[in-house]
TrEMBL record:
One of its GO terms (biological process) is proteolysis. Signal peptide: none annotated. The keyword Nucleotidyltransferase does not apply. It comes from Phytophthora megakarya. GO terms for molecular function: metallopeptidase activity. This is Metalloprotease. The keyword Protease applies. Keywords: Hydrolase, Metalloprotease, Protease.
Length: 206
C-alpha cells in the first residue's frame, strides 16, 4: 500500500525513512532549518536537533553518485525508545532516454531494496510506516514519474495471516509506504498520483 500525504497528516509511528533526491538537492539540506532536517526531527520525535544535524551533515557529505549508479548513506537518529533508521539516496547524475529527469528506474530499485519494516526479534511493527521523502530537482517535471516509481516498488503481499484452523489463510495488507514531497502537491495532484499508484499495484497483482 502506498499513500501520498503531507507530513503533518501522518498518524502512525515512522519505522524508517527513505530520502530520495539528486546530489544537489540533498546537499542543500544540511542547515538546521532545512525541510529535510525538520522532516527527520518530526519523524524521530526528537528534540535534540544539534546532534541530528551533525549526523545528517556527515551522511550528506559521504554521498558520491556516479553517472550510472546512485549512492546511499545511512544514519541512525536517536529517539526515546530506539533509533530511527534513515537511508539517503542520491540519484545517478546522468539522464538518458530510458531514465528520465526523475530517474524512475533508480528510484524504484532503491525503494524496492529498502521498503521492509525494521523489526527487532519478538516485536510487531505492523502499526508503523516507512516514510519516503522525495526531493527531486525540477518538481513540476518529476513529481508524477517519481510517485509512480515508488508505487512500482512497493511490496504487495508481504505478510500472511497464520491459519489457526482448516480454513485457508488470507493475505494481510503489505508494509505501508507514506510518501511526502519537498514541494507539497496540490489536492488534484495528490488525487492523480494516488489513483495512479493504486492502479499500478492492482495491475501488478493481476
Amino acid at each position: 500500500m502506498v499513500r501520498f500525504s503531507a507530513l503533518s497528516s501522518l498518524s502512525k509511528r515512522v519505522n524508517r525513512v527513505l530520502v530520495v533526491g539528486s546530489l544537489e538537492t540533498l546537499q542543500a539540506q544540511g542547515a538546521s532549518g532545512s525541510f529535510l532536517h525538520q522532516t527527520l526531527l518530526s519523524a524521530s520525535q526528537d528534540a535534540n536537533s544539534s546532534a541530528s544535524n551533525l549526523l545528517l551533515q556527515h551522511a550528506l557529505d559521504t554521498l558520491s553518485p556516479s553517472a550510472d549508479s546512485g549512492a546511499t548513506s545511512e544514519l541512525l537518529l536517536p529517539r526515546a525508545s530506539d533509533a530511527l533508521p534513515v537511508t539517503l539516496f542520491a540519484l545517478p547524475t546522468q539522464v538518458s532516454r530510458s531514465n528520465t529527469l526523475a530517474r524512475p528506474h533508480a528510484i524504484a530499485s532503491f525503494v524496492k531494496s529498502h521498503n521492509k519494516l525494521v523489526t527487532k526479534r519478538g516485536e510487531n511493527a505492523t502499526e508503523e510506516v516507512v516514510l519516503v521523502v522525495l526531493m527531486l530537482p525540477g518538481h513540476t517535471d518529476t513529481w508524477f514519474a517519481a510517485g509512480a516509481a515508488v508505487a512500482r516498488a512497493a511490496p504487495l503481499y508481504e505478510h500472511k495471516l497464520k491459519r489457526s484452523n482448516a480454513l485457508p489463510g488470507s493475505e494481510a495488507e503489505s508494509d505501508p509506504l507514506e510518501v511526502v514531497y519537498q514541494t507539497p502537491l496540490t489536492a488534484d495532484e495528490t488525487t492523480l498520483v494516488q489513483h495512479t499508484a493504486n492502479a499500478i499495484q492492482l495491475a501488478t497483482r493481476l
